[in-house]
Every structure is written in structure tokens, then in C-alpha cells.
Amino acid sequence: MNRRNNNIATEGIDYTVIWLYGILVSIGVLCIFMVEYKAGSNWLSTFLGGKANYSKQLIFGGVCALVATFILLTDSKIFTAFANLSYLLGILLMLATFVLGKNINGSRSWIPLVGGFNLQPAELCKIFTSLAIAKFISRQEVDFSNLKSQLIAGVIALTPAALSILQHELGLALVYLSLLIAMFREGLPAQFLIIGSCFGILALATLIVERDALSITLTILAGLIIFLAYRQVRKKQRLITITAILSIWILCVGVQRYVVPYIFNNVLECYQSTRIYSMVGKDYDCSLNKKSNEKVTGKAARKPDDYNVRQSKIAIGSGGFFGRGFLKGTQTRGKYVPEQDTDFIFTSLGEAFGFVGCAVFLGLYLYFLFRIVRIAERQRSTFSRVYAYCVASILFFHIAVNVSMTIGLFPIVGITLPLISYGGSSLLTFTVLIFIMLRLDADRQMVLR
Amino acid sequence: MSAFNQNRSRIVQLIFIGAFVLITLQLINLQVFSTKYKMAADNNAFYRKVIYPDRGIIFDRKKRAILENTISYDLVVIPAESKGTDTLALCALLNIDTATYKKRMRDLIFKNGAVKPSVFEPLLTTENFARLNENMYRFPGFTLSERSVRSYPYDCGAAVLGYTAEVDTGFLRRHKDEGYEMGDYFGTTGLESSYEKVLMGQRGIKRFIRDNKGRIQGPWEKGEFDTAAIAGRNLYSSIDVELQKLGEKLMENKVGSIVAIDPKTGGILCMVSAPTYNPNYLTGNQRKKHLVDMMYFDPRKPLLNRTVSTTYSPGSTFKTLVGIIGMAEGVIDDQMTVSCGGSYLGCGRRMGCHAAGTFTLKPAISKSCNSYFAVAYRRILDNAKVNNRDITLGLFNEYAYSFGLGKKLGVDLPSERMGNIPTAKYYQKIFGKNWQACNIISNSIGQGEITTTLTQLANVMAIIANKGWYYLPHLIDSVEGGDDYEMLARFKVKQRTKNIAESIFEEVHEGMQGTMEFGTGAYAKVPGINVCGKTGTVENAYRGESLKDHAFFGAFAPRENPRIAIAVMCENAGYGATSAAPIASLLIEKYLRDSIAGPERKAKIEQLSNMNLIPPQMKRLMKPEPNTIKKENIKKAIAKN
Q1: Residue B202 and residue B97 in one domain
Q2: Would the pTM count as exceeding 0.80?
Q3: Which of A178, A331, A373 to mutate to test the interface with B (most CBs of B within 10 A)?
């Protein structure tokens, strides 16, 4: 350890990440500018005026730069010290929304602040949860290979997720699931992921394949496996094997025939089910949905259609290989895509710069993610490593889900495109998330447990 | 501890890459391989406004517009965007029921797709337009589109000028690359059809950007890719509209036709087909109904252009030709006489005759002596020098062809018929190898198998007037801005008959002038003008029932310097001298003098115009049918088609 390193705060900071961060935020402001731009208006004056969303985003960027500098100037020990406390604070804030919450776009997850700004605690809670998980796993007495600690880590991650669901923020709730990737790196058995993806595949198959046909297919599959396994397995174990296969079969058919329809009809809201069904090109009958039936109060529930996805796909598809060019996107100018400056910001990029632009953009992001993974792997302290993995997982999940939903690969959930989408909360969250990681990385020579 | 799980870092990276690859594949699918999104985007964002050019105007020979344009409005709909339209209000405004609305919508979507604009209600009345215009905000997806509509300021010339109709799917298929679109109009008949290429002009397209609410944001790319509408070219016709109007007036209550040609140029001065209709009848929003009525229910067949699309036996008018050919071949001369006792008996059959006496060529023409031309015709066919009727008939036909008979003249109107000049082969089939002149002697007086259109006959008159040459009869003299498609070139080529001495024509002129002075055409005299004419009377029958003769009259005037050649034909009018001849004389006077002089002559116009010569078989059909159910059935059948 070098004395000089301790004295100069900028020493050891990964400038590649800062450059990438800067570039991505700039792309974001440009994208919002494309969305907001009106032909003939004096863009320079509106830029400076602070009224339009792109100039607001620029101001947010400035604020974030200040916060980032502040974070870089702190001592990294503070993060380990306050990890649990901050997590507690985050949970409290989320609970507070149920009292103080303001309804924006149908979700009560915002706390109004002075000056017309609103705070979304669920966003901030991502940071706190990441810190808390890092703290928990890095504790000397925790052996992450045993089930108990895995369960505790799961609870830490899923508590804010549950609260988010109660706030009708399904998208944010899903983000916390991405922390499983970080836990996987730390030794979470792969079975969890495998069983999880099996369930996903089964659910998807339920949507696509007709109900009875799928049951029959599963039965035939089970029979075939039993037939093949019968000779292979020794006599003593036959009974156990067959029982195991049969119970898996019952589980699968049960999931397919009852659990999945139950989730769609009773757990999810009508619009959510519709979005998921529309992804595979099917119509969901809202009259089956319990929640929508409860809501019927004289007024017929408006049938939500797949307008958003369709327009979003049209906008991206119309970009073609090279795109229509900066500010020349007809769909962007015509405001055909709803929520285009926040959740659907990717469409403006896709339309203006085409496949080439998208590929470059995604390449940039992938490089960013790999950079973070590389940073994580070079940490000496478990805390820093787990935290960096949490950052990578959250960023990855955001990007993958956001882009996927704009191109029709994932049902629409309210998840922003990190650093690009318009919105102070989102930008600030990711800034803090990334710069804490940079601070930790700068101090990687120090062993923080 | 961390070293234990180090390989999982690779797996995490693989998961990242996997997701990004999946996204990239879908992006390739959306952006590179599928074109439908680009089209959908264009449909979203572009509002294509079609700028209809004005069709070309047609002027008469004195530069009066006889076919021009006025403005009308179409109600246009993009079915995909019409959700939320106040259907009930719209139906009430248009006076249709919702079932009709739905049916029309379905048909439009079926024909033209849901995202392209289609005409919902064409050619709104001014009243409907005003009411709709106020309420357009209630009908998203609907727009009012201005278009120019044809109008015929003189209410005449229907058969000549023709009409336009909306293109149908069949037409679009046949004219794929000519830039037509659903809702366009094209010339269906008459000059509108013949000169469609130059009259139609070029549609212009303006593209506007619009937003998600359908509001226009401004022109796309500052209008760089817009195309301007290019108006159709104007046509200058040889028609004299006053003559045309007079002709139509004179032909009221008659079935027949008139063609008058300027022999010097071949330009058609007037072309009347009776019964006719007011061409403006086929322009308003009732045009379809009117068209169906006239096409299927009117027994008078007003849409038929009887000047070029009907063929008749030419009757005695043809005798002039027989005389000319006989003289040209040298089988008869001006000294030859034929005496006639009231009928021609040379072929064993009696062939009746109007006049008795002894005739040379001139009086034979004047008095229309059948016997003389029977003899002449036989001499042509039985020419001792050739001694082969197949050859002599061929020779005769060559003369006839050179007079523009037996083939399409090439008038600039669609659906011209060619008439018939029968050949030796044809007679061999009927009468065997050794057919005789007597077998076909009826041809000598224009009664047999020979048929011609009236335009051909008028052209024959022009040839006789010119003494052996002509220009193809035509309606259009010039195209404004030049005849780029070479449509008029053939009308500028001087055509000549087979070599015939001028003196022969001189003889015929003499005979034809005699017709007017002391012969069959005395009724057609025009005071102070030397008219040469020839009457014709054609026996005919309809479904076995012998009917009154068709009356023909062919003439040209003045003899010294022919400026008009005319052929008039009144179906079932009886003796040609009382109807066709005076009509011709009035038209000649009108054209040469520019007006009809004297109260007596003016009274004649009224008298002729009121003369009802509608043949009885047609009158019977015109009577209102008691079984209107039948008509309804036919209407239904048409609607189905």
C-alpha cells in the first residue's frame, strides 16, 4: 500500500467507466432532444431555458456530476459502515410512500419533494439493497454455500421487491430479481436458476400451445422418460425414480393447467396479462381476470391493446439499416410512440440511427457491463466484488428488459433505460450506483473485509 | 473463497452476451429484414394528398370550349382511421342507412385495403358538400377531396366527346404502370377515351407529415419529393359546335346519324348520333344511375354511336361509286344508255325502280335509276377483257377499299366498325365456284351484302368532292403543346383512290347536281349554292318484319370548291328525300352561310325537328312496361355483377 494513494482521491479511479458514463448520459440527452424537438423552434434557447425535458435532463446531469464528485471524495469505508442503516432507511421510505405517496401513472410510488420534483424510493432502494447484500455476504461469519445464508440474502433482496409490487411497480420489483445473478456469482446453486428458467419455459409454452395439447405432450414425454429409464436404473432405485418422474410430471401439468392461468387471472392485473399475451401475439380475455371484474363499477373496462408495442416496433423497424438520420424520424416527430422520452427512449435511437446505431449503442453498453465485471473480479474485498456484481446485474437487467420490451421480446413493464431515459430519479440512482462502485474500486488495494 | 466461484464470472458474462445476441437478432429481424414496419411507419406519418390535374379542354374549330372542367368534391375515407366516426350523423348527412355505410366500408376495404384512402361518396352535391364541410371534425378518417369534373357547356356532342368513369379493378390491372389509382377517372368512350393519354395529365402528390392525432405537421422534407400536378393538354377539334347543335336538334325524335366532313382536311364538322342524351347527364353524382338506365333500360340505345359503330347497307348512295368504277374501268362511258321500264329484269328477278326512261350516267345518278347501275355492275364483273369474275370483283373491291370502305377508316373514336365489302371467296362459299353477276346484283344499288358506316359514306362524298383524294376523317386537329404521342400523324397523310380520271368525277358531279335540281334530291336544295347530292333508300327488316326504309342522303357543297361533305341517315324514315335530304340541306346552309336565311327555312328546322320518325318496334319498347318487376330483377342482376 502506498501512502500517496491514500492522499490523492483521484488515484486509482477507473476513467474508462467515467468516459462511458459521460458518453451514455450525452446520448441520453440527445435522444430526449430528438423526441422533444419541434421543427422551426429555436432549440438553443429552449436548451438554455430549462423548460424542455432535454434541458431538465441536462440539469439533472449537472446535479449528478456534483453528487458523483462528492461520492468520489468520500472515504469508501463509509459505505460498508452505513450499508445496513441505509437499507433500513430505504425500506422505511418505501413504506412511507403508502402514506405520503403521490399517484403518477397509476403507481403510488412517488414522494413529492420541494420544487415540483418527485422521489421514487424504490429506485434509490436499489443502491441500498445492493450495499446490504454486499455487506451481508462479505461478513466473515457468513458462509454463502449454506442454505440459511442464501435464504437471508434472498429475503434482503425480495423485501423491497414485495413492497414494489404493492406499489404497482412490477418492473421495479423484477429488478430485484436480477440480484440473483450477483448471488449466483457468490455461490448460489445453479439449480435455482435452472428451475426458474424451466418454470419460465413452461409458462411460455402454456401461453403458446393449446392447453390440452400441452398436457398430452407432457404426459407422453413423462411416459417416454419412464420407459427409457426403466431398464437403465437398478431394480432397487426404480420405484424412487418413477415416483420422482411422476411427481415432476404432476408438478408440470399442475403448473401448466392451474398455476399459470391462476397467475394470469388472479395475481396479475388485466393489463399485465394482456401485455404478456400480446407479446406472443394472442388476445387475453379480460372477463376472466378477477381483479378487472372487481373493478367493474358500471363503466366497462377499456380493453387495453398492444398499441405501445406496435408503435414502438414500427418506429424501430422503420429505422432500417442506417436509420432515417438525426431529427428525421417521422415516428418520433409525430409522437406515435407513447412515453417516448422515458421507457421507450430506445425507439428514437432505433428510428434515427437504424440497426447500425442500435448495434453501436448496445456494443457500448455491453463493453460497459464487461468493464464492471472486470472491475468486480479485480477486487480484493468481498464487499466490493459483490457490490460491483450487483451494479452489473441491475444495469444488465434494466437494459435487457427495456430494450426487449421496445422490440416486442418482453412484456411491457415500467423499466427505464439506464442513463438514457429522461428522469432525475433514475439518472441519480444509476449515477450513485456506479460512482460508489468506482470509489470502492479506487480503494481496491485496501482490504475492506 | 472467491477463487472457488471464479468460473461463474464467465457464466455471468455469457448470460450478458446471450441476452444481447437475442436482442440483436430481433433488431436484425425488425430493421433489416422486415419491410412492413417501414410501410406501417409511412402510413402512420405521411399524409399523401393527391392533386388531381385538370383534364384537357376540348375546343371546337372556332376555339369555343365544348368540353371543360368544373370543381366537385369527393368524400374520401381511410377505413383504418375511421374508428370513432359519428356514423349515425354521417349517414344522416349523406342520406344512407348504417347498413349501407357498413357495406360500403367493407367493399372499400376489400377493394383497396384499410390504410389507403378510398372514395366513399363521389361527386358530392354542393349542398351536401357544405353540410359535410361544417361537420368534418366529427368524422375522423374522412376527408373532402377536391377534384375537377367534366362539363359540357353546349349540352351536345355526347357520342363524340364521350364520358369519364371511375377506374375499376379490371382497368387498374390492365394499366398497371400508367399511374392510375383507385378513385381516378378515365375516359371510357369517345374522344375522352381516344385521347386519354394527353387529356389525363399527370397527378401530383404532396406528402405531409402528421402526428399521432392525424394533425398535419407540415410538408415532408420541405416538399422536396412532392410532384406537381400537370394539367392535361387541350385539344382543338374540327367540330363546329353550332352545326353539331343544329344537327342534334334536327335529329330529335329520330333514329339515325349525321356526319359532315371538311373535304379539304378530313376534319369532321359535326357528328350526330340520334337518339342522343345530354352529356352533362353523366357527370354528377347520379351518373351511375343514369348510365345504368341508358345502358340497360333505354330501348333507343342512346349510348350507341351510330356514326361509327353501326353499319348499314349504303343504298343508292353507293350507285355513285358503281358509276365511277365502271367509268374508270372503261366498261361504261358517258354515251352508254340504259332504258328502264320501271324495273330491271335482266337477271330474271324483277328489281323495282323509281324512275322510268332512258338514261345515261348523269341522269341515272340524278334519278337514281336501278337498271342503269345493274347494267354497269354486270359489265364490271363480266368484263370480257378479264373474263374471270373472281378477278373482276377483286378489282371492284380494290376501288372500294381505296374509297375507305370495307376496313376501319381509323377515325379517332373507339369502337369503329369496318363495314363489309364482300370478296369473291365469300360468294364462292355461297353460290359455288361459278357464281354469276346476277347472284350479287343487289350490290349494284347498295343493297346486298355491302355494308358501310355513315362516316365511311361521308368520306366517300368527300372523296368524290375532292375528285380522288382524302384525308382520314378525324375530330381532333391539333394537341396543345405538340402531338408528342404521334396520335395525329395519320390524319396528315393524303390518301388517294385508285387511279381515276378527273373527268369521271366531273361527270358524277354533274349527275349529283342534277339530283338536286330535277332529281330525287330536290328537297335538299339550298338556294344559291350548288349542292351535289345523292339520295338513298334502304329496304330493311327487323326480326322478319319488313320495316319502313332507311333514308340516306349524301352530298357535298359547293360543287366548285367543296367545303363540306355530308352524309345523313334516318332509320326507318321512308323515302330518303323527305327527311335525310332536307336535314342535309339545312346543315350545308348553316355551315356555308353561318346561319339559316329566311323564315321559311327556319320553320323547316322546327318542322324537321318535330317530325317523329322513331320506328314502331322501338316505340313499343319505350312504352312503360307493366311488369316493372322484371326491370327490378335486371337491376339486381347488374348490382350483383
Answers
A1: yes
A2: no
A3: A331
